[in-house]
Design a protein that fits this description.
heterodimer, A: 287 residues, alpha/beta, Rossmann fold, 2 domains, nine-stranded mixed beta sheet, B: 494 residues, Amino acid/polyamine transporter I, globular
Chain lengths: 287, 494
Amino acid sequence: MTDTPTEGGGEQTETGDGQPTGDGPPTGEQPDPEASTEEQPEPDAPTDAGRPSVLVPLQVLEGESLPNGTPELLANARVVLLGYHVIPEQTATEQAREQFGEKAMSKLGEFADTLAAAGADVETRLVFTHDEATTVDRLIYEYECLAVLVPNSTERVDSVLVALRGTVGVGRNTRLVAGLFADAGVDVTLYHALNEGESPDDGESFLDGVRADLIKRGVAADRIETLVEDADAPLDAIAGRAESHDAVVMGETDPSVTTFVFGMPSEQVAERFLGPVLVVQRERPEE
Amino acid sequence: MDRSDPPGSSGPSGPSGTADPPDASGSTDGSGPSRAGVEVPDTLAAVVDADTGEGELERTIGLVGGLAIGVGTMIGAGIFVFPGLAAENAGPAASLSFAIGAVVALLVALPASELATAMPRSGGGYFFISRGLGTAAGAVVGLGLWLGLVFAAAFYLVGLGSYAGQVFLEAGIALPIDPAVPLGVAFGVGLTALSLFGTENTAALQNGIVILLLVILTLFLSYGSLDALGVFGAERVPERFFPPGGTLPVLQTAALVFTSYLGFAQVATVAGDITEPSRNLPLAMVGSVLLVGVFYVVTIFVATSAFGSARLGEFGETAMVEVARSFVGLPGALAIVVAGLLATFSSANASILSASRAVYAVSRDGVIPETASRLNLAYGTPHVALGLAGGPIVVLAATGRVALLAEVASFLHLVMYGLICVALIRLRRERPSWYDPAFRCPAGFAVAGVGGLASVALIAFMQPASIGVGAAIMIAAYGWYRYYATDVELKGDF
């Protein structure tokens, strides 16, 4: 898991000085095999937290384009830009690629250029598929993506709402938030709706712990707010709170329900909020 | 997957082995990100799916899906259409006819599996033959496969119409004419429209239908077998096993019912969509033949034990309904009617889709004009190819000549099977550099040799009319090749 940030860190220095060719050249990667194995047990060290991988799925041929604000939002990310096209089963995927591949690839290239111009590391993939979930899931595995973006537009990126459910997997949230927004001058609001049997104090101390972690990872202390709420319907509450922010970071659906990226809660929030939602993926089991 | 493997270094061995060429987009990663992914990397899939700068292809059909395609395509005919016809011709020995068919199908499925793992691309048999034996053979087989599937689909549609007609019968509604043919034609129009405009993916539905079918059939055949062996009362007097004509009717019946085994090659036509093709393709092809073969043989045994062969023949296409009725009355009859509707429906549907894929395969190669494979962006479906499949299917279904439709379909497939075996022998001899199958057919030369001869031999036992129609189609296909596609070079072309 932790080799991604390590690797990302290496790439960052490669591309930081505006090399438009990205992290391709093998020269940047040769030292990494040793480096990544040795530095693995240090996931918490803020210095090598590197760039968080974020998957951005776009149905390019359905006219979906890169929404406004996305380049700013993901300026510090390693963006996996996934163009995909869902084809009915009666059609061979080869057939669709032959006919639409070039067009889709050139569109995707434009989006990738926009993202890279804003500072992101970009990897582009174009997939013709019969099943969206299979494709998205495969790429999450391949790139060990921390989050998937529900691509909605936003005018600016000044403040972000981070909805946290509990301690499980919270480290992935903080890595994402710190990686994306640490130096970006973005206000971060940590939000926790109380679970059953949890006192407001429990909630406060949970968020304070997260806050401390974020500060350790380089987020300015005065940029972090915390908010604990006793909400009957957490999703409604999140969607409501989100209106005063520019983007939402929230967790994936119940881990027992496997791998549907746009699981219900984040989808509902995205539908009502209409702004970008970063859905933090739970850690994928090794296979 | 290997945790310590950095993204770049596993490069082309990743599950889809993509590497955007550097010119695709200046800012994208040129190194190929693939770390080992969800499943064990399939080097074969990696090579085929390698991104050519126009995107990669997701493989979405697993082993169960592959088996469902094979079984779903085949089982409709062998169990729900043929038993009456076959028993009338060959008596209880019709189960031997089905067994012969299974052996021939297996002898072809093994070489076909080897070829499919060497070339897991959409197009199936046509692809193997055009690449292995050249354009002329490829064109004859490709056009033959299209029309073979058209005949098969028309045959399934008439079967479907018979079962739909049976619904009226069970409901006590008397119809002035036999509704099988008109209903079959109506279903043909409906299915073509569905595949043109239906963008809902139906794979899960197809898997469910096949599983439900297998459950119904297993229950029914278990009960029937026990009954036939005398567990539930007096043992039935076995009929003379061989028909009066000796072995000839058995072989003729084998040729007739071979249509029941055409489905395994359909698995190869979607080879491009199958995950881990080096493992799943051979398993799905061989497995589906074995599975349906057993079901067919047992079905005939049960059916001929329940009724005399002559009686079965009188019942015609829906003989199995009467067999079920004789065991458990109306509920049994209804269960088989439902199963028959599902089975013939899924067979017809699969054949229409395969026919359209066959059209795509030949058009991609320039054997027929490329407009035939155009996709409709709104629906994502190949509307011209589907029209070229659906139109003739409806016309043929209107003829209602079940036996002729089945035999012509078998004829055209058997020619392809024979050439698949030839292609295997030739490729193994020539060993071109690209030929590196992940699955190797055991005793390849012998299996392919016998399989090829058996395929041709089976043709000899068909009715003259079927042979005539089949041969005319092949000659016409060759004529088309001479007229249109002589400058297309496909041998070894990837």
